[in-house]
Amino acid sequence: MNGVNNRGTRRSFFGHAGAALAAPLAATAAFAGEHDGASYILGRLAALEDVNAIRALQRRYTRLVGTGKREKIAALFADPARTPVDEHVRSLVLNGDDTFAIATDGTATGRVPCIVTTVTPIESCGTLVEMARLQGEGFVTRSECRTLATTFVKRDGAWRIDHVELGS
Amino acid sequence: MNVQTIAYPKEQMHRFVYTKLTSDQIAAKLAAAAGPRSASPLSDVFAGQSLQIVTDNGPTLRYRFTGNDRLSVAENGGAAVNGRYAALTLGEVAFFTHLVPGTQRGYNVVVDRASGLATVFEVWFSGFSDNREVQREIYFGYVAETGKTPPEARHALTNRIEGKGFYWRQDTGVETLELYPSTFYSNFVELSRLGGELGFCAPSDYVKINDDLYVYSRVECEFSGVMTFYVLDVNRAEQIGMRLGFDSGDALEYYAFTGRGEWVGQLAQFERFGDVAATPMPAPANGAPLAKGARRVYRPMRNNWTMSKAEVAALTEKNVFGPPSPMAGNKSPISELLVGKELTLRFDNGVAVDYRFDEVQRLRWRHAGENTWHEERYESWESAPGVVMFGHLVTGAPSHDCYKLVADFEHALVTCIHGTIGSEYIANEAQADTWFGVIEMEGLTPPKYRRHHFSDELVGRAVTWNYSPGLTSMHLYTTPHSLSWIIFGESGAGGMEWSGPASYVKIRDELYLAYWLEEACNGTLGTILVNLRTMHDCGIGYHCGRDGLRLSAMGAHARHAGRFDIAKYYRLKA
Question: Can you give the pLDDT at residue B485?
């Protein structure tokens, strides 16, 4: 599964992600008219490094979601206080091509399809739920396809997550 | 002259107040005991022999059997102590039981003479806040023989006996029905001790010796605390075992028994194909070993849910068919069949109720002779063509009453489950009466003699009910007057169980009205109309708690889970 995703994601970078990168980079004055020059290549390289860093950051985040390692998750955020807490999410698995858009102001956005598994306690409504909880049950487990939308900020040369949202 | 042939108890087990025996009282009673009794001749299979049993993560027990009822035992190389024992055999299995003199402990030992494997149940009193509740720890091991390499195999907990059920008659004359719909609970019906009216549940252990032979044990937690332990041969329906604990009169029961019985059926299992594992107690998250004797026990009366009469009388909060709960996730669509109807439901007990169904969820009612109409919120479902279940509170009635009704318009018949709050034991516990009657309305001519009627056609059946995602239970209709519910584990194995008094009314073929009372549990009166053709029920829960009085919809999808052929044991015979 991961291998398949990895291959798909790499291809997407040169296809989808490349297209997403084009607009902000094209607007950068340093690159204007220098598509064949060294600065273009250096700029392009820096952008690739940014994408790789953001992608790695996003993967670290998705691996940690559901593990309960809140401190490690918080360390990925620019403002740890904004770390989202959804105790129902048990896992978040990337499941498709990612796209990133990197702006010149040190921010970036990313979107990637994923499969989210949530485990939600059943509302207490009598003996059955009470007994189920006693034996470690009484939850609804649900997996569904959603989109992980993330905004990133670059602080002191390192990318951090600013905000994450699971869209439909 | 006493001609009664069935010994009904003055109080059923869930109502009986068992003495809180102190540890000293138990020690004194054990010290006074001579040893295990037996109605059958004891086996001399061990007489004159020595035996060393080595267990994994448990004791090593060195025995010398000086006769067929006396032994010495040394635990873990300690000093030997002399005591009494009883041994019995069943095929290649030999079983013996003894207490360790001067302690509140003992052992039940099962030796498979064919394989050399052994299963040891260490048992003890005064290990829980309720001292009389027998505790147990299970060890698996083997009989050590000089010069012989220890076997690698072990007996093990299993789900291979899940779903089976037996009628047993012990050599003592005691008759029971014992049903195993779970991997760590079981049902038992005391046919001879208590008259067989109700089935009860107890945490249980199931150990596989081989495909024919199993070890079963249960402890009547929350009741007497007595342990029943036996080896059974599922092919031959034979058992050997023991019973240890204090009865309702606080007398020590400690005896070995043999028994013969009948296989009464096999329920479905819901684990994945190939899953023959047990459902062991989960290990602590911190990696520590489980506490000795740890087991899952449902203890419903320790949840502080009971209220005083004054609290119940002061209740004003009512939730009548409010937002659906998870118990109504699969409820049937609301029926509009009643809307616009004007009718009288006339019951054989003299009660007659006039109805005007003004809207799909609003009705008016009045008792015959009353001038004033009372308005209530109701819900209704058409379970089968022309058969509607509906329910409502009876505003102004003295006991927060409710009516739950099944009206069959094709046959002009009606049955009412009249719910009230407050039993002689618990002020906020629901109680129920069943009323049979007819529908009087324009266009219907009701029968003079025919009525819906109590039925034992559901008895022995097991049906799963999926109420909403993640919320599935199984009903086991254990006796004509009781019902058990079983919670499934993650693997689909049967898990925690409890039971309550119940009643079953036949409405039509494959259509039954059932209620159960969660007495000494959480006080709910559950009422469902079971349609075994659509495999769907509709129903109404009725509950009184600190959050108020609640009348709520229920609805679930069903699957057949099998049937025990047990109704015959409850019929009165000459």
Answer: 98
**What whole-number distance in Å separates Cα of residue B48 and Cα of residue A48?**
85
Average pLDDT, chain A: 80
Using DSSP's 3-state secondary structure scheme, residue B209 falls into coil
B245's tokens: 């604990």
**pLDDT at B204 exceeding the cut of 90:** yes
Does pLDDT of B124 surpass 90? yes
In terms of DSSP bridges, do strands B471-479 and B482-488 run parallel, antiparallel, or are they unpaired?
antiparallel
Q: Which of A95, A94, A96 is nearest to A62 (CA)?
A: A94
Other Cβ atoms within 10 Å of A8 Cβ, number: 14
Radius of gyration of chain B (CA): 27
In the beta sheet, which residues pair with residue A142? A118
The 10s digit of each residue's pLDDT in B18-66 is 999 999 999 999 999 989 999 999 999 999 999 999 999 999 999 999 9
Contacts of A127 in chain B (CB under 8 A): 300, 485, 498, 518, 521-522, 524
Which chain B residues are within 8 Å of A137, Cβ to Cβ? 470, 487-490, 495
Query: Does B485 sit within 8 Å of A127, measured CB to CB?
Result: yes
Residue labelled with tokens 């996730």: B329
B324 close to A (CB below 8 A): no
Q: Does residue A119 sit at the B interface (CB-CB below 8 Å)?
A: no
Task: Say if residue A114's pLDDT is above 80.
Answer: yes
CA distance B143 to B218: 25
Distance of alpha carbon B255 from alpha carbon B36, whole angstroms:
5
To which residue do tokens 């039971």 refer? B499
C-alpha A89/C-alpha B569 separation (Å) is: 51
Render pLDDT for B390-449 as a digit per residue (tens, 0 to 9).
Answer: 999 999 999 999 999 999 999 999 999 999 999 999 999 999 999 999 999 999 999 999
A22 and chain B: CB distance < 8 Å anywhere? no
Hey, CA dihedral for A131, A136, A137, A138, is it positive or negative?
A: positive
Q: Nearest CA of chain A to the CA of B132: how many Å?
A: 23
| Cβ neighbours of residue A40 closer than 8 Å, sequence gap 6 or more | A31, A34
3-state secondary structure B117-135: EEEEEEEECCCCCCCCCCE
CA A101 to chain centre: 13
Answer for the pair B36, B254: CB distance below 8 angstroms, yes or no: yes
Residue of B nearest to A122 (CA): B326
Residue B469: count other Cβ atoms within 10 Å of its Cβ: 15
| Contact by Cβ (8 Å): B135, B232 | no
CA distance linking residue B174 with residue B168, whole number of Å? 8
* B400-427 b/e (C-beta count within 10 Å ≥ 16 → b): bbbbbbbbbbebbbbbbbbbbbbbeebb
Question: Amino acid identity, residue A99?
Answer: T
User: Which is more confident, A63 or A125?
Assistant: A63
So what's the pLDDT on residue B532? 98
Q: For residue B479, how many other CB atoms are within 10 A of its CB?
A: 25
CA B102 to chain A, closest CA, distance in angstroms equals 36
Q: Which residues pair with A156 in a beta bridge?
A: none
